TrEMBL record:
Segments passing through the bilayer: 49-71
Keyword field contains Membrane: yes
Localization, UniProt: Mitochondrion inner membrane
Membrane topology label: Single-pass membrane protein
The protein's name in its UniProt record: NADH dehydrogenase [ubiquinone] 1 beta subcomplex subunit 5, mitochondrial
Membership in a protein family: Belongs to the complex I NDUFB5 subunit family.
Key words, A-Z: Electron transport, Membrane, Mitochondrion, Mitochondrion inner membrane, Respiratory chain, Transit peptide, Transmembrane, Transmembrane helix, Transport
Length: 173
């Protein structure tokens, strides 16, 4: 009780609002901590992107500068009569020539692959048409699907035939 009596003059100097506010909060102002996403992943992504971009960009830029300075663009010249130019020799830029020679396929090869694709698709279409005609004729004539020939491997047939012959010899004796 003596403690309260000693504090009574001190408490009288505060107003009621100050006492209520102090009773509610005995710490500093109303500060809250904002919860935000971490920037660590974004920073790491930027670091990796910059590293790998520069890892690819610097050698490419140096290569392009080197090709253009030391090799230079192609110049037109007379072609000997017996010489047939390769497909990459038609490009002027040395980088384009390199890509056409070692990376891209020959345009003639691409054309022949396309022709092969067209031929195979045409064969498939013809086979489908013949099958459709056969089914139509079978329906028209009320035919049924006949037996078909299935080729067999001759070596297994020979082995079975030899085994059957040897069994027949044993039975005869």
């Amino acid at each position: 009780m003596t403690l309260l009596s000693k504090l009574q003059p001190l408490l009288k100097s505060f107003t009621a609002a100050q006492i209520n506010a102090g009773a509610l909060r005995k710490m500093s102002e109303h500060r809250t901590m904002r919860i935000v996403a971490s920037n660590w992943q974004w920073t790491k992504f930027k670091d990796y992107f910059h590293f790998y971009f520069m890892l690819g960009t610097i050698p490419c830029v140096l290569g392009v500068i080197g090709f253009n300075v030391f090799v230079g663009p192609a110049k037109l010249a007379e072609i000997p009569e017996d010489y047939v130019p390769k497909h990459w020799e038609y490009y002027r830029n040395p980088i384009t020539r390199f890509l056409a020679r070692y990376v891209c396929t020959n345009p003639q090869q691409e054309y022949e692959k396309y022709l092969s694709y067209i031929f195979i698709e045409n064969e498939k279409a013809q086979i489908r048409k013949i099958e459709k005609d056969v089914i139509a004729k079978m329906e028209e004539r009320n035919d049924y699907q006949s037996y078909y020939y299935r080729p067999i491997a001759a070596n297994y047939y020979r082995i079975i035939r030899e085994a059957a012959d040897s069994i027949a010899e044993i039975v005869e004796k």
